[in-house]
């Protein structure tokens, strides 16, 4: 079996969050979705589980941090620089925030950071390994 990751995120409005992630290029897997959660697929190995706050509390009693804090930044690879730009434009147009940190363009690598409507931080990046400078 292929190893997979399911990133679980608490959301305040499941419908809004689902629409946001669809706008970024995720697809919904209805097999693992219901009225309290939505499984949003990025690739065969990466999915994001959007969970209402009530559903989240089934799994943990730890508090949900405010949308203004960050514990992690989740990075998603894109096929082209233009895809990074499109993802940030879609974030801004669908209730999130684009460019929450400075854009980074190193020539061989390009990234932009965004936040979803609940404040979860994502980094969309493109990298050309063949153009990476020697020595990292």
Describe the protein's architecture and organization.
One of its GO terms (molecular function) is lyase activity. Keywords: Lyase. Residues 3-127 form the VOC domain. This is Lactoylglutathione lyase. It holds the Pfam family Ble-like_N. Strand 2 and strand 3 (37-41) form a beta hairpin. The chain has 136 residues and is of the alpha+beta class. The strands form 2 sheets. Strands 5, 6, 7, 8 and 9 form a 5-stranded mixed sheet that branches. The protein has a 4-stranded mixed sheet with strand order 1-4-3-2. It is 23% helix and 37% strand. Helix 1 (14-24) packs antiparallel against helix 3 (81-93). The mean pLDDT is 94. It contains 3 helices and 9 strands; from the N terminus they run βαβββαβαββββ. The chain has 2 domains: 1-61, 2,3-Dihydroxybiphenyl 1,2-Dioxygenase, domain 1 (Roll); 73-136, 2,3-Dihydroxybiphenyl 1,2-Dioxygenase, domain 1 (Roll), CATH 3.10.180. The chain is globular and about 50 Å long.
């Amino acid at each position: 079996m292929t190893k997979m990751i399911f990133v679980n995120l608490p959301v305040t409005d499941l419908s809004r969050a689902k629409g946001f992630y669809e706008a970024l290029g995720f697809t919904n897997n209805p097999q693992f979705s219901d009225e309290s959660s939505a499984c949003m697929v990025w690739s065969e190995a990466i999915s994001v589980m959007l969970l209402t706050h009530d559903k989240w509390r089934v799994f943990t009693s730890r508090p949900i941090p405010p949308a203004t804090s960050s514990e992690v930044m989740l990075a998603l690879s894109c096929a082209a620089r233009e895809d990074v730009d499109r993802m940030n434009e879609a974030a801004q147009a669908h209730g999130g925030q684009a460019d929450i940190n400075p854009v980074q363009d190193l020539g061989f690598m390009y990234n932009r950071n965004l936040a979803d409507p609940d404040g979860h931080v994502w980094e969309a990046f493109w990298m050309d390994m063949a153009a990476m400078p020697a020595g990292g």
